[in-house]
Design a protein that fits this description.
162 residues; mainly alpha
Length: 162
């Protein structure tokens, strides 16, 4: 199956669009169904769409009161793990080797975005940033920080080999 129609980056982008879509493109049907079911379960129970809607409308307090943060805490890890899983499977299917320590940026993104969910209902923060963007900033910061950590560890490993 080396002549796969989709590149790993495409799979990653489909997983960003909707957890499970990348798994379907990789022909990992059960994983895809599980990720889509988890997406709907967490989305509906956390009232994530209302949280997004009210945040974009500038109704920060309404967004905070509409959301169920206990359910929302599950979302970043499922979302980011879907991205990681789809990307890794696509690398395997296309015959590419998995880059070393690739999980570090994904792990830090999952961690920081989950922490960001915890703080997205704080008035001192959502006064300046719409609450839905706080976890998104956490994801971006997590990927950047994780990329730096990964590069430092790779450089250290190369130094030890030399």
């Amino acid at each position: 199956m080396k002549n796969q129609r989709f590149y790993p980056l495409e799979i990653l982008l489909w997983c960003i669009a909707m957890p499970g879509f990348g798994q379907f493109l990789n022909r990992k049907w059960i994983k895809g169904i599980v990720f889509i079911l988890l997406e709907f379960l967490i989305n509906v129970n956390s009232k994530l769409n209302l949280f997004i809607k009210y945040s974009f409308q500038g109704k920060a307090e309404t967004a905070i009161y509409a959301a169920d943060f206990e359910w929302m805490l599950f979302y970043p890890c499922v979302y980011i793990f879907s991205m990681f899983d789809g990307y890794i499977d696509a690398l395997k299917i296309s015959g590419q080797q998995r880059p070393p320590l690739l999980s570090i940026p994904f792990l830090t993104a999952a961690y920081l975005s989950t922490v960001s969910v915890i703080y997205s209902d704080k008035e001192w923060l959502y006064t300046y940033i719409p609450p839905v963007f706080i976890p998104i900033i956490g994801i971006i910061a997590g990927f950047i920080l994780g990329g730096f950590v990964r590069n430092i560890l790779l450089a250290r490993e190369l130094k030890e080999l030399a």
